[in-house]
Each structure stands twice: as structure tokens, then as C-alpha cells.
Write a structure and sequence with these properties.
Blueprint: E1 8-17, E2 25-32, E3 36-47, E4 54-55, E5 57-60, E6 65-70, E7 75-79, E8 95-105, E9 111-121, E10 125-133, H1 144-153, E11 158-161, E12 180-182, E13 184-189, E14 192-197, H2 211-223, E15 227-230, E16 250-255, H3 260-274, E17 280-284, E18 300-305, H4 310-318, E19 322-325, E20 332-337, E21 340-341, E22 345-346, E23 354-361, E24 366-371, E25 374-380, E26 385-391, E27 398-407, E28 412-419, E29 422-424
Parallel strand pairs: 10-11, 11-12, 15-16, 16-17, 22-29
Antiparallel strand pairs: 1-9, 2-8, 3-7, 3-9, 4-8, 5-6, 5-8, 10-18, 13-14, 14-15, 18-19, 19-28, 20-21, 20-23, 23-26, 24-25, 24-27, 27-28, 27-29
Length: 426
């Protein structure tokens, strides 16, 4: 769903291994191209006789051995942040690499190895996940492994485990998962909560007495590279009672199930946008434990990212390339104007119409196109599937889209999706 097929390149290498090479290490060189995000290596061995060969597997990059699995594996994956156990994730430097073989047992007649190397290149694409969750590292009941497994089952790409005033979770993230782990901490005070995302230890001490201390903690997190989110700012029980204009990057407009507190956060955000401010809105489930309503990736935050990495995801959010849906199944919308998309600022010389392509709507859903003037257009979906709106710029500062749906479970019409704005230069 909404995922672009990643551009890939496949190279196949064959190498005869002779009996006299038994008990030696063999390299099969290959060239690592530029801009590779993930490399998959698979090998098979064909005996030239009746005896079964035993050939071990590993790999080196241009500087060092990056992994070794001996005879335990016939394939491995190395990515920027995740890798098969026994192999090191990290930068995939362009240059000469080599598949390593230990010719442990070679038949008298020799054997042949066939190596398939698949390169997956950086491909900008929509990724989905949850930017506000908890674990046993604070007051949650889920282990880190359980959180990761649930997100993987949901088909999500990333999770931030933002435990209250704790960073221990950032040092014990599970590695055997395809889900990107975004370091996080929920800076939790008696008068409001804020997520610090992207660094292992954003602050050294969470205790504060007043606004001056809050400003100092935020400044420290900022200096260390954290992205700062004001969480559930209009919550009934733990609102942000500090200065609403404290230094921050993003606004948690949607926390958990859609309720009046989110409606208030939405109204304030709309006012900021109408005043000319560009403020990125995000969502988070704030899940702590099994609950019939508060669940992982509900809401789900979608990010158009250049790479499936922590920096790639955070940079995508910073650009405003963000859509929030009530669940990982959507609905979902893309806003475009010429070559520009959700979060972008369209130059004044671009006069194309705005196109909103909405996917996975249901019959009866309401699609709203909103500017600083409020709701400018509202249409009811007569059929399920995809829906498209087109509108002239009309000199507006921005447009964004909301989808509202009647949920029979609670017999209410609630937010099902909202996009960040596409802005227009005046």
C-alpha cells in the first residue's frame, strides 16, 4: 500500500573452487554502487562430484570484514541500520567489496559457488509508524521486543519508544526486526509532556521548577540534536501548561483515539497556520498497555522519507511530508501542485491546480479541503476506494485535507485522516 517499488540492481557471480583450495579463504570481489540503502547476498554451491562441499560465508567492505556466519547461513542482509545477526549495519560505502568464503570441505572434483548480490538503492517513499509509545522502561507493560513485533505485524516501518524521563530503552532496542527504532524520551513534568526524538540522551536531568528550567532542558535537547514535540497539549489530564511558544519543532495534533482534546489541538494548530506559521503536525498512539481503544499506530503517522533510517524519517517530518491516519490501513491522501507535495512551499510562478488524491475511503466518508479561510470544499464519497479533488490556488496561503468517517463502534463521526498543508508563496 502506497509503497514505491525500491529501485534495485542484481549481479550474479560464479566461482569454481578446486580441491587444492580446501582450507583456504577465497574472495569473490564485487563493486558496491553509490547510494545503496541495503544489500542482499545469497549463495548456493554445486558439487562437481558425489561428496557434499562445505563452504562458509562472510563479507568484507573496502576497509574491514563486515560479517561472518561460517556455515550457518547461505544468505545475509546488510542495511544502514539493520543487518542479519553476525553482520554489521552501517554505511554501505561505494567501492570494492568481496564475498568471503572459507573452503572448509571441497570434493576431489571441486565445486562451484553461485553468488547473487541484490542492491537496493535509496528510494524516496512513504513510511508509516508510531511516534509516541511506551514500554516496561517506564509505566508501560510491553517489552521492547513486543512493541517491535506488534509494529512489524501491522506492516509499519518505524517506532519511537518515548518512555517517561527514561533513556534506557534507547540502549536496548531489539535488532532482529525490520522496524526502525527512533531514539526517544518523553520529557514528563507536572505541567506538561514533550517528546525529544532522535538522540540517545537528550537531557541529563528531567526535574524542573519553572519555565526557566523547562527552557533550559529544551535548549539542552536542541543542542544535542533532538527534535522537540509538544505532546497532547490540550489534554484534559496532562495538558501543556508551560509556554505554548517554547522552542519546539512539531505539534502532536493527534494523540490516541480522536477525542475533544485532539479537536482542541487541531483548532489551535489551524489558528497558527492561518497566522502564517508553518508548524508540522504529527500523531502518536501513546500506547502503554493492551487496551480496546488505545492501540499501536492508532493514529498512524506517514512520512515521505528519502531513506528508511532515523535521519531519513526525521528529515521527512521536518519537511512537513507527513500525513496522519486513524490506523495503518488508512485512509491516506497526497497533496500535489505541479512537482510539489504535502509540506512543500510552492513558488509564486507555479500556477498549477492543487490535486488531492485520497485512497482507501469508504462510502459516506467526508473529504474536506481546508485553507486559512476554513473549509473551502467538502464532498461525500459515494463509493469506496479512491477519490480525487482538484482546485485552483485562489491566492491561498495553504491547503490541507481532512477525511471524516462515521465509526459504528462509537456511533460518532470522527477524524479518519489529516494531511499537513501544502503552502503557497505569496
Amino acid at each position: 500500500m502506497l509503497q514505491l517499488n525500491r529501485r534495485k540492481q542484481i549481479a550474479v557471480y560464479r566461482r569454481d573452487i578446486h580441491h587444492f583450495e580446501q582450507s583456504t579463504y577465497i574472495e569473490v570481489p564485487f563493486e558496491m554502487p553509490e547510494q545503496v540503502e541495503e544489500v542482499h547476498v545469497h549463495f548456493s554451491v554445486q558439487s562437481h562430484g558425489e561428496a557434499k562441499p562445505v563452504i562458509d560465508l562472510g563479507v568484507r567492505d573496502s576497509h574491514k570484514v563486515r560479517g561472518w556466519s561460517g556455515g550457518a547461513r547461505s544468505e545475509f542482509v546488510i542495511g544502514l541500520e539493520k543487518a542479519t545477526p553476525g553482520y554489521l549495519p552501517g554505511e554501505l560505502q561505494a567501492g570494492e567489496w568481496a564475498v568471503l568464503h572459507n573452503a572448509y570441505k571441497v570434493p576431489a572434483e571441486g565445486c562451484e559457488v553461485t553468488i547473487t548480490v541484490t542492491f537496493y538503492f535509496h528510494t524516496a517513499r512513504w513510511l508509516k509508524g508510531d511516534l509516541h509509545t511506551h514500554s516496561v522502561n517506564s509505566d508501560g507493560t510491553y517489552t521492547l521486543e513486543e512493541n517491535a513485533a506488534i509494529m512489524e505485524q501491522l506492516g509499519c516501518d518505524f517506532i519511537a519508544m518515548t518512555d517517561h524521563n527514561a533513556v534506557s530503552q534507547n540502549y536496548s532496542y531489539p535488532r532482529n526486526t525490520s522496524v526502525v527504532m527512533i531514539p526517544g524520551m518523553e520529557f514528563t513534568t507536572n505541567f506538561g509532556h514533550s517528546n525529544f526524538l532522535g538522540v540517545l540522551e537528550p537531557i541529563d536531568d528531567f526535574r524542573v521548577k519553572g519555565q526557566e528550567d523547562v527552557n533550559a532542558r529544551v535548549a539542552t535537547a536542541r543542542e544535542r540534536g533532538a527534535k522537540i514535540v509538544l505532546n497532547h497539549p490540550h489534554c484534559d489530564y496532562c495538558p501543556w501548561e508551560w509556554d505554548l511558544f517554547v522552542d519546539h519543532d512539531w505539534w502532536e495534533v493527534w494523540n490516541g483515539p480522536w477525542t475533544a482534546r485532539n479537536e482542541r489541538a487541531l483548532i489551535w494548530w489551524q489558528e497558527q497556520l492561518a497566522s502564517g506559521r508553518k508548524l508540522v503536525a504529527i500523531g502518536g498512539s501513546d500506547v502503554h498497555r493492551p487496551d480496546p481503544y488505545v492501540k499501536h499506530a492508532m493514529p498512524c503517522t506517514w512520512v515521505y522519507a528519502e531513506a528508511k533510517t532515523v535521519p531519513g524519517i526525521l528529515q521527512g517530518i521536518e519537511k512537513g511530508h507527513v500525513v496522519i491516519s486513524y490506523s495503518p490501513e488508512g485512509p491516506f491522501a497526497q497533496l500535489t501542485c505541479g512537482d510539489y507535495m504535502t509540506g512543500d512551499t510552492v513558488p509564486a510562478e507555479v500556477t498549477d491546480n492543487i490535486i488531492a488524491k485520497v485512497e482507501h475511503v469508504r462510502e459516506g466518508d467526508q473529504v474536506k479541503l481546508i485553507s486559512e479561510q476554513g473549509v473551502e470544499r467538502m464532498e461525500v464519497c459515494l463509493t469506496a476506494g479512491a477519490y480525487e479533488l482538484e482546485m485552483e490556488q485562489n491566492g491561498r496561503a495553504f491547503y490541507r485535507v481532512e477525511v471524516w468517517r462515521h465509526f459504528e463502534e462509537v456511533d460518532k463521526s470522527l477524524m479518519a485522516m489529516l494531511t499537513n498543508p501544502i503552502y503557497f508563496q505569496r
